[in-house]
Design a protein that fits this description.
heterodimer; A: mainly beta; OB fold (Dihydrolipoamide Acetyltransferase, E2P); four-stranded antiparallel sheet; 53% strand; B: alpha/beta; three-stranded mixed sheet; 5 helices; globular
Chain lengths: 76, 218
């Protein structure tokens, strides 16, 4: 089981808004596929799958504010 | 003594000339895939045919005209995956899309945006325009007038989208929207200098300033 977390985006960035979900629970994803897009200030940032597998759970929804380190999705 | 970092990596330049937004977007995405795959960084430069683009957080409330009225005037509207609000692109505006591996520049979105702003400030200084930052706002300003807008996307730490420098842009288009969701006055190089500039010449200067800031060579 792999937890997909919001990585560090820079020294002064503590949170970002979920602006796009590319997949849903049950989807099969390959390593490197985009899972969630977040927006902060004037930037969007795509978080991708670290390993191939099936999305067990997406823990955020569009419009949510996520903090750095927060688990966004779980891949099995 | 300060150590000067010497240009180490090759910068590819893709000058697309005047191009519609979706075609340039496809080229951006293709170039992002190349750079993720290990190709050298690339600076895409172009002018767009008239288009309003809406970033991820953009709301249509920032349009002062109905969309069918905008379409009647021959202006395209595109939603896109950059950060930021609504803006206008059109002929006379230099658009730069740097496709860079930000692993080489500290993996910091704010630092990267700040570097892009600094490139624009240095570029404008070469034309005698004293542009600055405004605290709490993004972009580059001449007094309270905005001359450069920014909005980026990042995938696997490779950047796309970028910045737009109003050179000879018809500023009338900006009156149809609330640019970047702000009640701001836009300006251009031509407006500040009282004469039009050759966009090709600005482009060449941009390449030089950008390469220097990001320690790249052609």
């Amino acid at each position: 089981m792999i937890e997909i977390k919001l990585p560090e985006l820079g020294e002064e960035i503590e949170k970002a808004v979920v602006s796009c979900l590319y997949c849903q629970a049950g989807d099969r994803v390959k390593e490197g596929d985009d899972i969630v897009e977040l927006t902060t200030d004037k930037a969007t940032f795509n978080v991708s799958a670290e390993k191939s597998g099936v999305i067990k759970k997406i823990l955020v929804k569009e419009g949510d504010t996520a903090t750095i380190g927060q688990t966004l999705a779980i891949i099995e | 003594m300060l150590k000067t970092q010497s240009p180490t990596q090759l910068l590819r330049i893709r000058d697309l000339g005047l191009m519609d937004y979706p075609s340039a977007y496809r080229i951006q995405k293709q170039t992002v895939a190349e750079v993720i795959g290990g190709s050298p960084p690339c600076l895409i430069l172009c002018e767009h045919k008239p288009v309003f683009t809406l970033g991820r957080i953009a709301t249509e409330e920032n349009f002062f005209l109905q969309q069918d009225e905008i379409a009647r005037q021959g202006i395209d509207i595109q939603r896109t995956d950059r950060g930021g609000e609504v803006t206008f692109h059109g002929p006379g505006q230099l658009v730069a899309y740097p496709i860079l591996d930000l692993n080489n520049y500290g993996r910091d979105l704010k630092v990267y945006l700040g570097k892009l702003e600094q490139v624009a400030i240095d570029l404008l200084r070469q034309f005698g325009i004293l542009a600055t930052l405004i605290e709490g706002q993004r972009g580059v300003w001449v007094g309270q007038r905005k001359i450069v807008s920014l909005g980026i996307g990042v995938r696997k730490w490779v950047s796309f989208h970028g910045l737009a420098v109003n050179v000879n842009t018809d500023l009338g288009f900006f009156t149809m929207i609330r640019p970047c969701g702000l009640n701001v006055q836009m300006t251009s190089v031509a407006q500040e200098l009282g004469r039009e500039m050759d966009v090709s010449a600005v482009k060449q200067r941009f390449i030089k300033v950008f390469s220097r800031h990001f320690h790249l060579h052609q």
